[in-house]
Specification:
The structure holds 2 protein chains of 2 kinds.
Chain A lengths: L3 E4 L2 E4 L5 E7 L5 E7 L5 E8 L5 E2 L10 E5 L2 E6 L8 E9 L2 E4 L3 E5 L1
Parallel strand pairs in A: 2-11
Antiparallel strand pairs in A: 1-3, 3-8, 4-5, 4-9, 5-6, 7-8, 9-10, 9-11
Chain B lengths: L2 E4 L4 E4 L4 E8 L5 E7 L6 E7 L4 E4 L2 E6 L4 E6 L8 E11 L2 E4 L3 E6 L1
Parallel strand pairs in B: 2-11
Antiparallel strand pairs in B: 1-3, 3-8, 4-5, 4-9, 6-7, 7-8, 9-10, 9-11
The chains are: A mainly beta, B mainly beta.
């Protein structure tokens, strides 16, 4: 199974600023996924990132708030823009092998 | 509306007993359903996938059932161990291929 790393593992940011989260996979994958897990909640899919095309966003998530880059088949970034305390969450990236998904360790973001 | 529900209350059992967790869904017609384990501070880990035409699937001490009439999946851990203590999430495809929607998760606590 794929091994996924994320940077940073955690950060504390001030409201109004932006944070870019990096996701690195140890193998080439077609699609990468970004999820959010708010405190005490389950995972919610933010967007799907394909290499060479625009990310596809789920209902309730927009590119201006969560721009995504996918420059190659092993790397993606998610930016959380103009942050507010409501953005405090764990952000996870994942890749799929068939229908099974493999997740990174997550980035714990706290916005003050 | 579409929902995936798991018992939000923690399940406390004694070591050696069988743990049974429930996942109910509404207004989905999934071709398959998955179960993941999530430990604090970590991303979910894939455990099992069951297809709609499979009534039961086993892997070591784990067993999953899938009843598309009841719209329910049951997840069993036999001979439970303290190391099985974690949150268990069910998931199914929501808006498209590999785009998972997760249940709320059930926390399992196995005491020695």
């Amino acid at each position: 199974s794929a091994v996924i790393s994320q940077k940073p593992s955690r950060d504390i940011c001030q409201r109004g600023t932006s944070l870019t989260i990096q996701c690195q996979v140890d193998s080439q994958v077609t699609m990468m996924f970004w999820y959010r897990q708010q405190p005490g909640q389950s995972l919610t899919l933010i967007a799907t990132a394909n290499q060479g095309s625009e990310a596809t966003y789920e209902s309730g998530f927009v590119i201006d708030k969560f721009p995504i880059s996918r420059p190659n088949l092993t790397f993606s970034t998610l930016t959380v823009s103009n942050m507010s305390p409501e953005d405090s969450s764990i952000y996870l990236c994942s890749v799929a092998e068939g229908r099974e998904q493999y997740f990174g360790p997550g980035t714990r973001l706290t916005v003050t | 509306s579409q929902k995936i529900e798991q018992n939000s209350e923690a399940l406390n059992i004694q070591e050696g007993k069988t743990a049974t967790l429930t996942c109910n869904y509404t207004n989905y017609s999934p071709a398959y359903l998955q179960w993941y384990r999530q430990d604090p501070g970590r991303g979910p880990v894939f455990l099992l996938l069951i297809r709609e035409n499979e009534k039961e699937k086993r892997k070591e001490r784990l067993k999953v059932t899938f009843d598309t009439t009841l719209k329910q999946s049951l997840f069993h851990i036999t001979a439970s161990q303290p190391a099985d203590s974690a949150t268990y999430l069910c998931a199914l495809e929501g808006t498209g291929f590999q785009k998972l929607v997760f249940g709320t998760g059930t926390r399992l606590l196995v005491s020695p």
